[in-house]
Design the sequence.
């Protein structure tokens, strides 16, 4: 679980990420925009198009947030919006970890 200071919670802040750079992988679409704060803030969204079962959606979200939490000390100061695609439902933890790292590198948000 991410600490509260690293969560992107307000809708206006989430909407600002639309102006940022976007990359797409097999399991996720990620948007990021530089912020003026001294921390990275992240939100992960898993819609009902991925799975109608909340248990499966929450599993994807927990796995994704855990990967990001472990990489948090390497992330520069960005607001990051992560949107899961339907293929994420069948993804294992290691595949999610590899893709998140790859997308972070493509966005150049790793210090």
Sequence:
């Amino acid at each position: 679980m991410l600490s509260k200071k690293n969560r992107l919670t307000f809708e206006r802040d989430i909407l600002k990420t639309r102006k940022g750079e976007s990359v797409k992988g097999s399991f996720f679409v990620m948007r990021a925009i530089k912020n003026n704060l001294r921390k990275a803030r992240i939100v992960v969204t898993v819609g009902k198009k991925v799975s109608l079962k909340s248990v499966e959606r929450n599993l994807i979200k927990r796995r994704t947030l855990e990967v990001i939490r472990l990489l948090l000390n390497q992330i520069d100061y960005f607001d990051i919006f992560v949107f899961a695609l339907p293929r994420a439902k069948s993804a294992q933890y290691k595949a999610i970890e590899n893709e998140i790292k790859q997308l972070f590198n493509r966005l150049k948000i790793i210090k």
User: Anything to note?
Assistant: The chain has one domain: 4-107. The first helix runs from residue 11 to 16. The chain has a mean pLDDT of 94.
